[in-house]
Amino acid sequence: MRRSSKPMSRKPISRRAVLKAGAALTTLVAAPGVLRAEPAPVKVGLLQPISGAFALDGDLAKTGAEYAVKEINDAGGIKTLGGARLELVIGDSRSNAEAGAQATEDLQGAGVSAVLGGFASGIALTATQAAARYGLPFIVDCAVADTITERGLKNTFRFNPNFSMATELALKNLVKLNDDAGKPAKTVAIVHEDGLFGSGLAKLMQEKLPPLGFEVLESIAHPTPARDMSNVVLRIRSLNPDLIVPSHYFNEFVLFARTLQQQRVRPKGIYAVFGGAASSYRFVNEFPEAAQGVMDCNHWGDPKNPITTKLRETVTAAGKFYAYNTPINYSLVHVFAQAVEKAGSADREKIIASLATNEFDSGLMPYGKTKFNDKGQNTSALPLNTQVQGKDIKVIYPANYAEAKPVFPINS
Asked: Domains along the chain?
């Protein structure tokens, strides 16, 4: 069959057709959802005592974490993951160590990339151990026992200061406080809960106070929960110390302070270290006379940061009482998000590597840059000293965060 030598005729492409094709392509480019799926959310677990004796703390922590998650998602999510959103998964430790370990197992089953929180030292110890079995990153919020980061667990990081770090600073500030007032305090009674938290801190205080010129008259332990503090306060009355150094959780702190007030035991000062109620607006609002003048060295957000004010307003608007749990867990979520951003992955091993090798902004906490050492401890973590003055809680040390001067002695 012979082919025709006559060329095929072609219709010219009109300008209108070119413009229509270009518009269609522009539409596809402008609507990436047509071309690719929404990036998978990054699940992060929050382990807190949502129920049980510490439920107040857990609820405040949840508020801070939720605020941070919304803030990050509203700002575009994790940029290196295509704008992936954070998804908060709550685990309830029910205020005890065994349930904390089980809740961690549940979070592992939910497919979280990391767990944040823990709150109490006993809960954090069992929860981090459970997470370690799966290589699940765990960033501790408030738990202070030194042993948490001394077990060689590569998955465990602590954002806040430990016992030793906080005690060192608390004692330095106590010496300054006493010296500036003419050294009115010479004798001390330590009152503490008998668990890992209180006993560890009491031991450090017993070792370190005498070389600084303070005579420790006695260290008095009590159980948690405690229903009555009458015998403890009677013992304090007989000792008549210049200064009381208490370390216990919220309910026991309030009970102790109220019993001191009722029994008219009036030391020259109450100087708490990680006092469970000493830095709580609930204590200040419900028992203002018992709270007046109480000092604390504790986790506390930067009072000069405007987001701190917004968080406090959020908590108050919900009919709750602000405390440190809110800013520290807000900050914890931001540190996690930065770790994922720098890792460019939600993979657990890569997040652990990111946490171990990078520096992070510390959110609302007065830490400067957060940097974890080879044990997983944030070396820049810093507690602040506060005092209840009037109906407010004021930072009194260090000077660059201070809102007021300390009032000491509170009773002459």
From this structure: 42-161+304-381 (3.40.50.2300), 164-298+385-397 (3.40.50.2300)
